[in-house]
Design goal:
By secondary structure, the chain is mostly beta strands. It has one domain: Sandwich (Jelly Rolls). Helices cover about 5% and strands about 55% of the residues. The chain has 1 helix and 13 strands; from the N terminus they run αβββββββββββββ. It is globular, with a radius of gyration of 16 Å.
C-alpha cells in the first residue's frame, strides 16, 4: 500500500480515514498488567503497532493472545518463531529458530519480542497483523516482527501462525511474560 494515500490514517488520529485504512484506537500503557483491544468487525485485517514497550521486570518477553469470548478464554494457536541477535560488545551474533517460543495448538500467550530489558534505554517496538479476524469461515492467520533490546543484546524477532478457530475473534491482549507493562504505546488500524 503506498504510504502517500494512507499517511493521514497511519500517523493521524483515531477515526481519520483515507478510504481503506483507519486508525481505530491508541492505548498508552502506564504500569498496566495487560493492554486489551476489542477487535472491529468491518476490516479484512487489523494491524497493531507497538512503540517503546518497556517491562516493569527486566528480561521479560512481550506477548499477545487472541480470544473469541472477550478474554474469558484464549484460542489454540500454532506458530513459528525465530530471531536474529547481536550483542552490544560485538562478541556474539546469531540467527536462530526459537522452538521454546512456538505454540503447537497451545492456548498460552504468544511471544512477539524476546528478553526485553527494563532500563530507560531498553524496550521493544514492532508490528502484528491479524488477517480476517472476524471471519466465520477461516482460521485466523497472523504475522509479527519486532525489535527489542535487553541484556546488552538487540533482538530482531519474527513470528507467524494461526489461531485455530473459525469463530470471529473479538479481543486481543498484549502483556509481558511476568510483571506489568511499565510504559509504551499500542495503536490499532483497520484495513478494508
Amino acid at each position: 500500500m503506498p504510504l502517500g494515500t494512507h499517511k493521514a490514517a497511519l500517523f493521524g488520529v483515531a477515526g481519520v480515514s483515507t478510504d481503506t485504512v483507519v486508525l481505530l484506537s491508541t492505548q498508552t500503557a502506564s504500569d498496566d498488567s495487560v493492554v486489551e483491544f476489542t477487535l472491529p468487525t468491518a476490516y479484512k485485517f487489523v494491524k497493531f503497532s507497538f512503540y517503546n514497550c518497556l517491562p516493569a521486570t527486566d528480561g521479560e518477553d512481550f506477548k499477545m493472545n487472541l480470544s473469541t469470548d472477550g478474554g474469558s478464554t484464549y484460542e489454540a494457536k500454532t506458530s513459528s518463531f525465530f530471531a536474529a541477535n547481536h550483542t552490544e560488545a560485538d562478541d556474539n551474533v546469531a540467527v536462530q529458530y526459537e522452538s521454546s517460543d512456538d505454540l503447537a495448538q497451545g492456548t498460552g500467550d504468544q511471544t512477539l519480542s524476546r528478553n526485553v530489558g527494563s532500563a530507560a534505554d531498553e524496550g521493544c517496538s514492532g508490528e502484528l497483523t491479524v488477517f480476517n479476524p472476524t471471519s466465520t469461515t477461516y482460521v485466523k492467520h497472523w504475522i509479527s516482527r519486532s525489535s527489542g533490546y535487553g541484556g546488552d543484546r538487540n533482538w530482531d524477532n519474527f513470528g507467524a501462525g494461526y489461531a485455530n478457530t473459525t469463530t470471529a475473534l473479538n479481543e486481543i491482549r498484549f502483556l509481558y511474560s511476568s510483571g506489568n507493562i511499565a510504559a509504551g504505546t499500542i495503536k490499532m488500524w483497520g484495513v478494508k
